[in-house]
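Running this now, will post back.
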Amino acid sequence: MARTGPHGRAERRSAGELESEVLAALWATDEALTPADIQGEIGGNLAYNTVHTILKRLYDKGLVLRDVDGRRGAYRPAKNAAELTAQAMHEALDRGPDPIAALQQFVTGLSPQEEEALRDLLRGSGT
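Update: finished.
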């Protein structure tokens, strides 16, 4: 079902939001998915061509891998969600002029559970 905005009209999802939804569908399974599979998982009256375009963008960014199976291609994520998040965090730290200050700001926003998990990881007792 398509989402509707405040005036009852169909709401368009941004390319970034669609990319996130496609990646979430791929992360939810251990199997490679075709564009039609992903279209069915995401729903929301999303056109097949839109799914295919999003997959091409993700492929061009190196975020998905394409398995060729005859004429139809199936896709799988190049990295799991945790690996992709960690990569984004490293890239954000590399862009800033003061990565230590950024880390300090990041740590102050952690929940108590996240803070304890980070302490465990730094002590070498995390998973």
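The longest strand covers residues 64-69. More later if anyone needs it.
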